[in-house]
Amino acid sequence: MSAPAPLGMFAGGGGLPHRLAEAAAAQGRQVHVVAISGFAKAEDFAPHRAIELRFGQIGQALEWLREAGVRELVMGGQMRRPSVLSLMPDAAGLRILARIGLAAFRGDDSIHQAVIKVLQEEGIEVIGAQDLIEGLLPKAGLLAGTVPDDLARGDIARGIEVAGALGAVDVGQSVVVQQGLVLGVEGIEGTDALIVRCGELRRDGPGGVLVKRVKPGQSRLVDLPTIGPQTIAGAAAAGLRGVAFEADGTILMERAATVAAAEAAGLFLLAFDPANPNQE
Description:
alpha/beta
């Protein structure tokens, strides 16, 4: 019986890359981690084989992975895309950047899909984090707190609509709505900073709702919306009533801890189906 195929990984910050490495190792797979400099460190992935490289060193990363026999790769973790001018690509990276073309100047999903296409052309298939970790994407339902009232449901519906419009132009995945008012939408700053900003803009009365959803047409292989205990802590500090996120499309980190934090803070945690958001 042949040994399981090795797995490559482009790793950013946070706990997801480590969970992915553990899951792959539990399947008997050798894990080869490219830690993205500034977001992850190679030494943090011991005992797995790892190397730390800049975004622009993708040519070196591909050569390193191919030498290890990697034909399948997963991307995970928090990382902020650098400006094109700061990439400092290696020689192979320059050629790859030329193949990516104008997508490098557009939104995150545009460049992700272009990178996935290039990797496939190089003989490396990209898989989603959900292919390695069962239950990573919750099904529709109320996970914590009380059922949202009519006002909260209205805010959720408004958030789904606005986040969908943002995602259609590849801008962001999150929005905060309070009493029908859009307090803020996610840009390059990320969800945590959005929550802090909206806490400063909150109105009197019932608090708002953070709504996260997958961008329309987005690849499900990388950069899915993610929430965890830190999201709940920020939402509580900002005076929000709850967090609603797209079922089967949002990564829920540390599920038990996240649900417990929402219960303790008195927040609802709702996984919704965009086609039927009022169904628990």
